[in-house]
């Protein structure tokens, strides 16, 4: 019997068990013991695109003197490296140090999701079509109404209406993103709705609810899948689904302005990410093999090497998870909604500067 199974045993020893790569996973670096792992030399032969880094770093330096004081020397060296070399193996020649993120699987696979700035159609005054209100934050802290209570009219008559949508899902999607642009259909004006607070109720993913109810397959779940399901159902059915998430986000209107993240810096598409600030402080540059996906959400089979800057945070963005900003509008929304793929990531620092030793962790993060 041993002879019968020997070839399989030998193959298993030589090649190991098959590992999934349908979402762009790679297995090039062995196992990692920590969240951040000191890396002497980065080896990557992926196609490169560093064109947006100079523009995004310039936004940081122009808009934040405090971050400029920390990161300007590192940004300057990275721009020099990108112009003169662009070879990850030569980063050390420019004084740049690196620490690779271990990934949730401890094999270097860091999850990339995507977010975008939606453009929502509203009217200033309600009519038969535009009848779903979008609200500014009421004067409440711990005792704010739930989503269901707000839908029942708990905020009516308080003068908090910022506009009216033609459906319930567009405001909900903007809540998920945290902010977005609004086009007022009645006077053709454009405003930016910034995050204005929330009702401090627990967040429940309606995507997860749809999966658990068997209404959308797990492998098909995306923002587009949610919207398609909503458009195929009546208002009462949609409302019942949305009310499964008691959390509600309010907005603060501002003049048409650049999209900014938590750091208050204008965000450029495919140049900035949201990350865990306890590991990647605001302004941190990272080198990332960004997964490239097809229009249907499947992995294209390729990664692209990019320099990105951490300029935003998010409640679900913890440790080995980055949220890549895709830009504004429906196309960016479709692309971001499909994004649930993996790539390798290195946190960067500059020797003999405030950013040196990027592998260092605060005591509570040491493992």
Automatic annotation (TrEMBL):
EC code: 4.2.2.n1
Q: Which reaction does it catalyse?
A: Exolytic cleavage of the (1->4)-beta-glycosidic linkage between N-acetylmuramic acid (MurNAc) and N-acetylglucosamine (GlcNAc) residues in peptidoglycan, from either the reducing or the non-reducing ends of the peptidoglycan chains, with concomitant formation of a 1,6-anhydrobond in the MurNAc residue
Does the keyword section mention Ubl conjugation?
A: no
Q: Which is an annotated Pfam family here?
A: MltA
Question: Which SMART domains does this chain map to?
Answer: MltA
InterPro entries xrefs = 3D_dom, MltA, MltA_B, RlpA-like_sf
**CDD domains given in the database record:** mlta_B (cd14668), mltA_like_LT_A (cd14485)
Residues forming the Lytic transglycosylase MltA domain are 119-252
Which keywords does this Swiss-Prot/TrEMBL entry list? Cell wall biogenesis/degradation, Lyase
Q: Identify the PROSITE patterns for this entry.
A: PROKAR_LIPOPROTEIN (PS51257)
NCBIfam families from the UniProt entry: PRK11162.1
Q: What is this protein called?
A: peptidoglycan lytic exotransglycosylase
Q: Which organism is it from?
A: Vibrio zhanjiangensis
